Amino acid sequence: MRRSLIKTICIMAALLLLLSSCTGRVTAEPDEAAVAAAIRAYSASGGSGNDPITERFDTTVDPSWLGMSLTLPQNSAEPDNALARQLIVLGGEASASACASYYETLGFTVLEQRYFDQTGQDITQTCAYTIGRGTVTRGGIETQAYLITLRPTAGVKWFANFNISPSRTDTSFVQEFLLPANDVFLRAKELIGEEHPVIIVTGFSRGASCANVLGFLLDAAYGSDDLYVYTFASPRTVTAEVAAQFPCPSIFNYVNSADPVAMIPPAGWGLARFGTDILLQGSSSIRLLGAALRERLADLVAICPDVYSFYHKRFSLTGPGESESGVTLFEIIMFVGGQAFSEPGESFLGDETDLSSLLGLIAKGSDLRAAQGLIVLVGASDNAVRIGTQHQPKTYQEMLAGLDGTETE
Fold first, then answer.
1. In this structure, are residues 326 and 36 in contact, taking their beta carbons and an 8 Å threshold?
2. Is the pLDDT of residue 379 over 60?
3. Where are the beta strands (DSSP E) in 116-207?
4. What are phi and psi of 255, to 5 degrees?
5. Residue 254 forms beta bridges with which residues?
6. How does DSSP classify residue 235?
7. Which of 38, 72, 95, 248 is the most exposed place for a label (fewest CB within 10 A)?
8. pLDDT tens-digit profile of 92-124?
9. For residues 333 and 264, what is the distance between their CA atoms, to the nearest angstrom?
């Protein structure tokens, strides 16, 4: 049920494997234009619905952390790790029925659940959510509150995660997260009406990024004093310049320092998150892994320095520089993601132009080799699983259990 949560990281792992294998041997050299056209066609289709890789991950979260009620700190601008431990259970849940059950346990009445019934192939800019109303304890006093949970990545939303700007231009916000966040915001305002209540927002992964932007919108509408926003594993959502203009003191983003999903879109594109990032540090080896991933992501920024080039700069597969018949980094990532989720032996480029042939083309000196170092970190499939594990709700829950060695930035 929660396997789709790690589709995004599987794409990254597969991309790494693709580029690190540039020296692989192939038996045929397909035409660059034909391969590029096939990649573009596949990328535009929305991706594969298969996800055999994701079966390797243990995504279970201990629901006992939820408790029977929510207790909030009096000051919403101070992070409360006890509250974070409760909300990770909600944020990491992808099932509508389970989320509704959690709301009932906490004493909340579900007012609305939406988009949970979308098909696995739906790539529209939406995010499933649950809105409920109930009672919380704040400063020793019971008070009415609204609780909003945004679902993690589900179905082929992994495709939408990388389609960060449907307009294919540089914008102040990551459009893929702004659009669904605004949708939830407008509906929440309708349900809240003229009240000025306590509002709690949480989400994991894609749900976290939408929750991050939703927190900004709610802060602008209601202020920060009665707003509590806790996100987990959120990608970046907004330019650093805009984030600095709107501090949003009641938004806290819990981020595993070795989680690749939380590293995208790259900081080198001038992107950040609203609020305060709280870095969760793993073992020394995990910290080194995170540092290495950040260094290698800088290689991608070197060849695609902004969102526009991510979508529009066409790299030659057979040599250095650009080519009208080449492919963009966006198209490559979408294609490799599809290969990662395909069944063994399945090819989306035909018998003559499979992934091995693509590797052979890139081996001839394409600028795409600039990302080769990123893949070396993955290597064997066991290492890919190790990296993918860093994005799991269970991993975040384990890190939240101790929180010794956390940092804010």
1. yes
2. no
3. 129-138, 141-150, 198-204
4. -130, 120
5. 232, 278
6. P
7. 95
8. 998 999 999 999 999 999 999 999 887 555 556
9. 13
Inter-residue contact 102 to 65 (CB < 8 Å):
no
User: Alpha-carbon torsion 335, 300, 166, 153, what sign?
Assistant: positive
The encoded tokens of residue 272 equal 């950040």
CA dihedral 401, 265, 349, 324 (to 10 degrees): -170
What gap in Å lies between CA 184 and CA 117, rounded to an integer?
16
Distances (CA, A) of 230 to 77, 111, 165: 11, 21, 24
The pTM for the full model equals 0.84
More confident residue, 90 or 60: 90
Q: Walk me through the domains of the chain, giving residue ranges and CATH numbers.
A: 3-54+303-387 (no CATH), 63-287+393-408 (3.40.50.1820)
DSSP 8-state class, residue 258: T
Instruction: Answer for the pair 33, 323: CB distance below 8 angstroms, yes or no.
Output: no
As a whole number of angstroms, the distance between CA 9 and CA 260 comes to 7
140-199 residue pLDDT tens:
999 999 999 999 876 555 555 667 777 777 789 998 899 999 999 999 999 998 888 999
| Pairwise CA distance, residues 406 & 183, whole Å | 33
How many other C-beta atoms lie within 10 A of the C-beta of residue 28?
Answer: 11
CB within 8 Å of 236: residues ≥ 6 apart? 174, 209, 264, 265, 266, 267, 271, 272, 273
Residue 367 structure tokens: 């600028």
In the 8-state DSSP scheme, what is residue 236?
A: P
- Catalogue the E-assigned strands of 140-234: 141-150, 198-204, 227-232
Catalogue the long-range contacts made by 340-345 (C-beta closer than 8 Å, 24 or more residues apart): 340/10, 340/11, 340/13, 340/14, 340/53, 341/7, 341/10, 341/47, 341/48, 341/49, 341/50, 341/51, 341/52, 341/53, 341/54, 342/48, 342/50, 343/50, 343/52, 344/52
Q: Alpha-carbon distance 160 to 157, whole Å?
A: 5
Portion of the chain with pLDDT greater than 70, in percent: 70
- Which residue in the block uniquely carries the two structure tokens 């198209």? 331
